[in-house]
Write a structure and sequence with these properties.
By secondary structure, the protein is mostly helical. About 65% of the residues lie in helices and about 0% in strands. It contains six helices and no strands. The relative contact order is 0.11.
């Protein structure tokens, strides 16, 4: 992470440094920081289907399902077919305007 911080300090437009740091943060379970860096990367590289997929999976891990589904759909539109499985798993409820978590009546 320190190396990526140095690179970003030297050149804040070097998008791959944000992506690399995001992956490090994700591995260390600093998920909000990972999302922030994936987001910055996508400002520079808005057509990167893999990073939309990665950020979507990270959103799932912080229970932000709407944002995750938006990213999975964008990833699929950009040609990443692995997003289909994640959409089927996490986003079916989106068409019904319901949360993926159902609370049973008592």
């Amino acid at each position: 992470i320190e190396d990526y911080n140095f690179i970003i300090k030297e050149d804040s437009t070097y998008s791959f440094a944000y992506y690399g740091r995001a992956l490090c943060y994700e591995q260390l379970n600093f998920l909000k920081k990972a999302i922030d860096d994936f987001t910055i990367y996508l400002v520079f590289e808005p057509e990167d289907a893999i990073v939309f997929l990665n950020r979507g999976q990270t959103y799932i891990n912080v229970n932000e399902y709407n944002k995750a589904c938006d990213d999975f759909e964008k990833s699929l539109l950009l040609g990443e077919n692995r997003a289909k499985e994640l959409i089927e798993k996490y986003c079916k409820w989106k068409n019904w305007k319901m949360s993926p978590i159902t609370i049973s009546p008592e």
